[in-house]
Amino acid sequence: LCAVLAPSPQEMGARLARCLDGAPAQSAWAAAVALSALLLAARRTAYDRTH
Fold this sequence. Notes:
The chain is mostly helical. The protein is built from 3 helices and no strands.
């Protein structure tokens, strides 16, 4: 039953590769990293002010 409901590892790998390949995906990852760093810096500054 599990084999029917879950995709094979090869199929999952192919889906993941389609999501992560190409310039648009790489740009999205870079933007996410930059935004995360910005939010972390802002949070740290706010934390330093309160403690």
